[in-house]
Amino acid sequence: MSGQTLYDKLWQNHLIEARDDGSALIYIDLQLIHEVTSPQAFEGLRLAGRKPWRRDAILAVPDHNISTDSAERAAGVAAIADPVSRLQVQTLDENCADFDLVKFEMNDVRQGIVHVVGPEQGATLPGMTVVCGDSHTSTHGALGALAHGIGTSEVEHVLATQTLIQKKMKNMLVRIDGQLQPGVTAKDVALAVIGKIGTAGGTGCAIEFGGQVIRDMSMEGRMTLCNMSIEAGARAGMVAVDDTTIDYVKGRPYAPAGEMWDVAVSAWRELHSDPDAQFDTVVELAGEEIKPQVTWGTSPEMVVPVDGSVPDPAAFSDATRRAAATRALEYMGLAAGTPITDIKLDRVFIGSCTNSRIEDLRAAAAVVKGRRVADSIKQAMVVPGSGQVKKQAEAEGLDRIFIDAGLEWREPGCSMCLAMNADKLGAGEHCASTSNRNFEGRQGFGGRTHLVSPAMAAAAAVAGHFVDVRDWKEV
Amino acid sequence: MKAFTVENGLVAPMDRANVDTDLIIPKQFLKSIKRSGFGPNLFDELRYLDEGQPGQDCSARPINPEFPLNFPRYAGASILLARENFGCGSSREHAPWALEDYGFRCIIAPSFADIFYNNCFKNGLLPIELDVQLVDRLFGEMYASEGYQLTVDLQRQRVVTPSGEEIAFEVDAFRRHCLLEGLDDIGLTLQREDAIRAFEAQWRERSPWLFDAIR
After folding, report:
1. B contacts of A264 (beta carbons < 8 Å)
2. pLDDT tens per residue across span A268-303
């Protein structure tokens, strides 16, 4: 018998019972909760007279529709300008109070985007099963956990039973060997993978990212990569536990300490695929060949390297893809053959659960240091992923670098990634965004999103159009 | 949950690949704390010419005359014919809620995104995967014949076309059972409470650091 993959091990560890019909009941260690996908779940719980199964397996934080404006935030929940958003945040507060759940208040320094907060607080640990009513829950797989998004009915199911009914996914290995070029980041790797396998390439699979590039990657980078697994169609992405993982977890508030730490670490050391493990699919990329990536269309798979051009739909042999590309170019207001570096931008967004961690902000700050945002840019904003990231960035003086360069320095939240709050694009505006989805209307009605890395977004803010950050000279 | 047994209904097209959940129900409508009322905002950005707002009376909005769901011939459709990777993107269950609230009971496509597919079954909505060429043929038949209807029989796992052709489809036995009976799966899972408790006890023994940390 061949060895087990990391996913096989995580699955096996959490399997309560397998059923004859192919479904299985699996145990959930941690559920993260936010304001948008939980109200109906709590309501269902209440209507059925049920209570959360384990309150110590739940952590709640508002992030999706709160303001990132300092003045509005300082005034508290009661002062949230949009009454519909306010009600949703208040409903989360009430639900957590009623069921006695741990929740970080909107202005708590520990508050932030749920997928930044979980690992940062040590709530997410290696070897866990983690769920949240948000597809980017795949982020937490970076710690060697099985983590994926669920719908609201399943949020309620986990609250009530601490379990999920699942079917085992297939195993996919994405191996990136070699070394990345300077200026090429985890975001570029994620986009290059999606460009290669497509947005449905990982459907039905759990992806493990491996190879030298991943072993050399920081935890922040691994989180960026696992975060975007869902954009490749895979509910879950993951990375084996190594010293980088363990060093990251050590000393975090909810992480084990003392003797318990040593016991935990020895268990976590097993969390890797066995050398003889079999994968259903293996995808390989060479690290050296990956260039900074920019999306040109309305699906993350519509991506090319920065030195490329907007493709001609006629070049797609498949009729459905050709139609999609034609429609995308129309929506984006782009002509086939336009060099990517000729695309003019209106706004720049640096943030989201994909790219709002300290390393992302450092990379962006290094690019804009001593420079100014181009006059043609209407707005360039930096939204840190959490209060802790914000504090750390301010301690390093990154906020000053951004502000001096003409970027806005905001309060933590999901912000313009999905534009549920006031941060949004106007119709027809092009945005260099470090977020994860370039869908029609995602960042605002009629808005045109180009997904890029933080360094690429920062360079675009200064230039007013895309530039190859590999050629960037720091001042 | 509403049970699904047999659905005989008018078929409407959503003729593009990678329809994402932002397109199915845009983010501004996710601020609702309710589970119902999303139907008028299904495909909001395609259906209307203006930008929709939560709580607005949609009957007064300018509709997009080029969007098929606005064509009189598709009024009252309960089966949606779609393309590859339908429902990709966010995990928002508001997407199946909106489709169900609009009146759809069944979606036929060559493939679905995982989370969306799963969410459908929790809401009495049946997603059916059929071979891409077959779906293409159904699109052709539907466009050619106004009032085109299909019968979807979950018990027999068959889609029946107007000519009487029967097309078999696959569905997980457990999901099929829950949908046929309209079962709430929390209740079913809680019947296994002893097994969950037993698992939990040994898991706590093996991984004590996963317990009692968040409090």
Report:
1. 207, 209
2. 999 999 999 999 999 999 999 999 999 999 999 999
Query: Rounded to whole angstroms, how far apart are CA atoms A111 and A108?
Result: 5
A235 with B119: Cβ contact below 8 A: no
Single-letter amino acid, residue B16? R
- Radius of gyration of the CA atoms of chain B, in A: 20
Q: Is A414 annotated as a binding residue?
A: yes
Inter-chain touch A161–B122, beta carbons under 8 Å: no
Domain assignment of residue A275, yes or no: yes
Residue A270 lies in a domain: yes
Q: Give the whole-number percent of chain A exceeding pLDDT 70.
A: 100
Question: Are the Cβ atoms of A27 and B192 closer than 8 angstroms?
Answer: no
Coil, helix or strand for B104? coil
Q: Give the pLDDT of residue A20.
A: 87
Residue B4 to residue B121: CA distance in whole angstroms: 10
Residues A438-450 have pLDDT tens digits of: 999 999 999 999 9
CA dist B54 and B32 (Å) reads 8
Taking contacts as CB-CB distances below 8 angstroms, the residues of chain A near B22 are 418, 437, 439-442
CA–CA dist A91, A34 (Å, integer): 10
- With CB atoms and an 8 Å threshold, state whether B113 touches A163: no
Helix (H) or strand (E) holding A308: none
Nearest C-alpha neighbor of A70 from the set A471, A431, A422 = A422
Where is the domain boundary, A131, A166, A201?
A: A166
Question: A86 with A136, same domain?
Answer: yes
The pLDDT of B198-203, averaged and rounded, is: 98
Kindly state whether residue B158 falls inside one of the protein's structural domains.
yes
Q: How far is A468 from chain B (nearest CA, A)?
A: 28
| Partner residue opposite B189 with nearest CB, options A82, A165, A256 | A165
d(CA A222, CA A235): 16
| 3-state secondary structure at position A408 | strand
What is the nearest CA distance from A182 to chain B, expressed in angstroms? 31
* pLDDT band at residue B212 under the 50/70/90 scheme: very high
CA–CA distance, B25 with B30 (Å, rounded to integer): 8
Nearest Cβ partner of B214 from A102, A133, A200? A102
Domain final residue, candidates A255, A289, A323: A289
Domain that holds residue B89: 6-183
Q: Tell me which chain B residues have a C-beta less than 8 angstroms from the C-beta of A128.
A: 210
Question: Does residue B193 sit in helix, strand or coil?
Answer: helix
Query: Can you give the pLDDT at residue A1?
Result: 64
Question: Which residues from chain B sit within 8 angstroms of residue A29, using beta carbons?
Answer: 210
Interface contact flag, A420 B206, Cβ < 8 Å: no
Close Cβ partners of B169 (under 8 Å, ≥ 6 residues apart): B128, B129, B130, B157, B158, B159
| Shortest alpha-carbon distance between residue B55 and chain A (Å) | 9
pLDDT at residue B1 in the model: 84
- B77 and B166 housed in the same domain: yes
Nearest Cα residue in chain A from B1: A153
Record: contact A56-B115, CB cut-off 8 A: no
Q: What is the DSSP letter of A295?
A: E
